[in-house]
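pasting for ref. prot 1 ->
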Amino acid sequence: MAIKKGVHDEHEAHEQCQFEEKAEPKLLNLLLPLAVLIGMIVFLFWYTGSEGNNKTFLQAFMDAEFEKAIFMASFITLIFTVIFYVIRKIPLREMESHFLTGGTDLLPPIVILVLSWSLSSVTQDLGFVELITQTVAANVPPWLIPSVVFLVGAFTSYFIGSSWATWALMMPLGVQLAVSTGASLPLAVGAVLAGGSVGDNVSPLGETPVLTSAISEVTVLDHVQTLLPYASIIIGISTVLYALSQFLLV
């Protein structure tokens, strides 16, 4: 059976059969570490924000040290998960292999996020956001702000190929434009998120098109060319609806 499914020789087929017999996937192995992680994040948000004072949970959450809390929660969850998997009789060598593989898979998006946050900080220090805000606010009516933010975000994400990098760059601009012009803040934030998602799905540099084209065994450009006509229609409709939403949601 294993040979028929695409395994190249009998030795690999035998190893696959042995692996499938030994593998006992349990939903608890996923849910319990996730529950510990979420629980520790919530607790440490409260703990780092309260600082021993009598604050409400909301006040403590607003004053929390988010980076410290998330780091501590992740570290505690990692230790708990290792101990839990050892009790579940999962070999340490196998855990080490999956840990390194997972870390390697997460490295590219982490690097992209660090670079995008750095670029976002540099643009803010140079006054780029204020310059664009003043220029757009003086020439664009408030009801067009969500559409403009969406289109700029869509083009930016197309050439960058990363939604996270686009969100990091565009979110300060979108929020400040909405506040300074009196446009709808929720619509501006939504336009930033929607615009950033465009490039992640139709850009030749985006992870989704690259992965999809590899699975489909076609070139990235051919895959993107089939997406662009449909994506262009959706982008056009979204732009019009963002402009009309200022009046429709009153």
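and prot 2 ->
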Amino acid sequence: MLIGELAEKTGATVRMLRYYDQQGLLTPQRTDSRYRVYDESDVERVRSVRCLINSGLNVRLARLVLAHAFDQDVELPEDEAGCVPLLEMLTEELASIDARIEQLTRSKAHLGKLVGDVTRILETKVGTKIVADCQGAARRGADQAEQIEQVEKAG
């Protein structure tokens, strides 16, 4: 498939895919006329790249994670001088991701509670027509907020 089709399948822009190629995150085959050609495995790779970048990893670390996950031929350092800084960087990144997850979990709980409160207002002041339209989403949000609160209390 050509770059436009890959963009369509993954939700990435053509410009983004070219950037991934320049950064070594994606390595397409080339036709004789230098067009980039991708296969189905590149669809999953692009989705992984987007996930890693969107979760805050820098390009260098994303490249390492992708090489380890997809290519299996990444050369990791075998001495202390190489392993220690790499381990520190990876550990810091894991801690950063954990902190973002905690923030997102709290935000989700607050939003779920707000959805529940707005739903109760609609039920008492507006009537059932609007409530019926919003009720499913509101209940899910309130239920998720309660579950999150229970997990936070237990942990």
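The radius of gyration is 22 Å.
Residues 80-154 form one domain.
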